[in-house]
């Protein structure tokens, strides 16, 4: 399993499988006000805000939208402003009626799963990605067994 992950490639694979997709460039072109507003903010702090929202169980069905916002914050952010709840709410709502919003699906699985290793348990927030813990378990268990912390 490669350590490199490309969301663009994952989205392309989903599209090839018949699942709707939205590319960052397309999202940016079709939402110029979003790009302009995100550009005013510190990209890392804004990405952290959207990333933190991924840990809210009530927003599990909005996982794709929040992940896209994390990436857009890092790609488009360049300012010095600190993010606040108003920009987070506005950006979240701005993508609801777009192709990104169309990727959202009602929650069908647990929000948090557990990986048990010889060194303890790890909680994995799966979002909407099916079998994330199942796929991660062997890797975490084997890698963690080799590490000394």
Structure overview:
The protein is mainly alpha-helical. It contains 8 helices and 2 strands. It has helices spanning 7-16, 24-30, 32-38, 43-53, 63-76, 85-94, 99-102, 132-146, and strands at 112-117, 120-125. It has a two-stranded antiparallel ribbon with strand order 1-2. A hairpin with a 2-residue loop joins strand 1 and strand 2. The longest helix has 15 residues, at 132-146.
Properties at a glance:
mainly alpha; 8 helices; two-stranded antiparallel ribbon
Oligomer: single chain
Spatial order of the strands forming the largest sheet: 1-2
Residue runs with pLDDT of under 50 for 5 or more positions:
none
Q: What value does the average pLDDT take?
A: 77
Overall number of structural domains: 2
Give the percentage of residues in beta strands.
5-15%
DSSP summary: helix tally: 8
| Radius of gyration of CA atoms, rounded to a whole number | 17 Å
Total beta strand runs: 2
User: What global shape is seen?
Assistant: globular
Structure summarized in a few sentences:
This protein is mainly alpha-helical and about 150 residues long. The chain is built from eight helices and two strands; from the N terminus they run αααααααββα.
């Amino acid at each position: 399993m490669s350590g490199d992950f490309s969301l663009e490639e994952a989205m392309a694979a989903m599209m090839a499988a018949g699942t709707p997709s939205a590319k960052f460039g397309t999202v940016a072109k079709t939402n110029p006000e979003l790009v302009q507003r995100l550009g005013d903010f510190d990209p890392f702090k804004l990405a952290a805000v959207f990333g933190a929202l991924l840990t809210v169980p009530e927003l599990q069905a909005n996982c794709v939208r929040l992940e896209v916002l994390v990436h857009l914050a890092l790609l488009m952010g360049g300012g010095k402003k600190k993010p606040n709840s108003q920009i987070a709410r506005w950006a979240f709502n701005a993508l609801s009626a777009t192709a990104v919003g169309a990727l959202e699906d009602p929650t069908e699985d647990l929000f948090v799963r557990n990986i048990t290793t010889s060194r303890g348990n790890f909680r994995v927030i799966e979002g909407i990605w099916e079998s994330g813990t199942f796929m991660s378990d062997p890797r975490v268990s084997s890698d963690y067994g080799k590490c000394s912390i």
